[in-house]
Design brief:
Elements (H helix, E strand, L loop, with lengths): L3 H6 L1 H9 L4 E3 L4 H9 L15 H8 L4 H13 L8 H45 L5 H4 L1 E5 L8 H4 L24 H7 L5 H12 L5 H9 L18 H5 L3 H20 L8 H32 L3 E5 L4 E5 H9 L4 H10 L6 H6 L1 H38 L5 H9 L3 H15 L8 H13 L5 H14 L5 H18 L2 E3 L1
Parallel strand pairs: 2-4
Antiparallel strand pairs: 1-5, 3-4
Length: about 500
């Protein structure tokens, strides 16, 4: 039944449409068209050939109601029946309610049971990606490498073994040894000298170096070719010319390794094609080279300490500043910060000593702030593109396993997957960074709206989500009910035309 109050409640809308020359009508062949037809007032003609006026109509006339309000009463009379004698309108309404309820129930069930789990799965995958790949800060890629001499190089008893080589020039051996490959364990034994306290310091030194350090020194200076016997690692070659370009601390490490290995080779002859005399000559040249190189490195470190050199070297490619530990610690304690050193790095400034650095530390700190801002903006831009790439790959991957419903559609539309991929890319091209912040909303767009665009899943699920946003305490069933109301309302609204 259509109540008179319901009819009159539509009059303001009708009046507004009339003011712009429009009229709302039911589209032919629709559910709404049938209901409008069966709600039209039925006039009963009397014997005198005039319409019979019912008691309710007489009351309406007596109450002085307008023509439109009077029509409302007639619509109510035409659609009003009883349980035992329903009107055609009521019977038609009951039939459509049953059919629509059945269809809506099926749509809601599909959205909740098939689409929503896929939306949730997609959203969780995107959330996991975002948690793992957050934009990096500039400081995340910058490093302070603190360098210090191994304790064995500050031990007087060990340094005494170098005294005889002071003042001698650094001369590389006339020819290189070509000895067999050694395992990491064998090399670690070769560098020990047989003195417990000294060997402890040597072992401690090696433990702080890269695992491949001794292997690389051996293959660079004592073995022409080969791989690590224990790991199969390919050596990283370091030649005599490259050593001269190293900072004093790295040079000291290599020189110490050459010194210790060559000492053992001099004492214990290895198998080679050389004569014994030639072998001993070359071995002694290795010993002299290692010790003179080591003394040169130690003198450079000593000079750094005297003049207060803080920065030993810097590498913009690896974003690394190497510092002298003996100078770095007191500089930090006096108010220095790593950011100042990073500013020198990116500015490619020549300041190396504490005095020169402190004279312009504010400028260098500001330079790092500027670089960090630039880096942050660049990472934000990159992260947006990376996120879109992830969403694209995740969507394409998800389409590899179709539901039964999709398989039925694909049987009729062989290009279903390709068409959805095109829509997905169009969507990703249109979004802004803020548009893909909400993982669940993105999943709704890609899964419910694009992948299952042939269903009503997006409308139903998005309405449920919106209800939750408007009222966080809303019951899930109530949110679903609101979604259904919106869905049916849209279904009916689509059957209205403005002429």
């Amino acid at each position: 039944m259509i109540k008179e109050s319901s009819f009159t409640g539509t009059l303001p809308v009708a009046s507004a449409l009339d003011s712009i020359g429009k009229v709302a009508v039911a589209k032919p062949g629709t559910v709404l068209s049938d209901l409008v037809t069966y709600s039209a007032p039925i006039e009963t003609m009397g014997e005198d050939g005039k319409p019979v006026i019912t008691t309710k109509e007489q009351e309406a006339i007596a109450a002085g109601q307008s023509d439109l309000e009077f029509i409302g009463w007639r619509v109510q009379y035409a659609t009003e029946g009883s349980l035992s004698d329903p009107t055609i309108h009521s019977r038609c309404m009951d039939a459509y309610i049953h059919d629509i309820a059945k269809a809506v129930t099926a749509h809601v069930a599909f959205a909740k049971n098939t689409v929503r789990p896929l939306v949730t799965e997609f959203a969780e995958a995107y959330q996991a990606y975002r948690a793992a790949f957050k934009p990096k800060e500039a400081a995340d890629s910058a490093n302070i490498r603190v360098l210090r001499l191994p304790s064995v190089l500050t031990d007087d008893s060990f340094l005494d073994t170098l005294t005889a080589y002071k003042g001698k020039p650094i001369l590389k051996p006339e020819t290189g040894f070509c000895l067999g490959a050694k395992s990491a364990e064998e090399l670690q034994q070769m560098i020990l000298i047989g003195h417990q306290r000294t060997d402890k310091m040597i072992s401690e030194w090696v433990s702080h170096l890269p695992e491949s350090f001794l292997f690389n020194v051996w293959t660079s200076f004592f073995c022409a070719t080969g791989t690590a016997a224990s790991t199969g690692e390919v050596p990283v070659a370091v030649n005599y010319e490259e050593i001269s370009r190293l900072n004093a601390f790295d040079k000291a490490d290599i020189a110490l390794a050459i010194t210790l290995i060559s000492r053992k080779l001099e004492d214990n002859v290895e198998s080679t094609d050389m004569s014994l005399e030639r072998y001993r000559t070359i071995a002694s040249q290795y010993v002299e080279y290692g010790r003179t190189l080591l003394l040169s490195a130690l003198e450079s470190v000593s000079l750094m300490l005297r003049v207060g050199t803080l920065i030993v070297d810097k590498n913009i490619k690896t974003m690394t500043v190497s510092v002298n530990a003996e100078v770095y610690k007191p500089w930090l304690e006096s108010g220095g910060t790593p950011e100042v050193l990073f500013g020198i790095l990116v500015d490619d400034a020549g300041a190396l000593s504490v005095t020169l650095i402190n004279d312009n530390k504010d400028k260098y700190a500001k330079r790092w702030d500027q670089y960090s801002s630039f880096y942050r903006n660049r990472e934000l831009g990159n992260s947006f593109n990376y996120a879109k790439n992830f969403l694209e790959q995740q969507f394409i991957g998800s389409m590899q396993t179709l539901t039964e419903s999709e398989q039925e559609i694909a049987a009729k539309q062989p290009n279903l997957i390709e068409a959805n991929v095109v829509k997905m890319r169009q969507y990703l091209e249109s979004v802004r960074p803020q548009d893909i912040e909400d993982s669940y909303d993105v999943a709704l767009q890609l899964v419910a709206k694009i992948r299952f665009g042939y269903t009503s899943s997006y409308q139903i699920l998005s309405d449920i989500v919106e209800a939750g946003k408007q009222n966080p305490n809303v019951d899930v069933r109530e949110a679903a009910l609101l979604a259904v109301i919106n869905y049916v309302s849209d279904f009916m609204a689509d059957q209205i035309a403005l002429n």
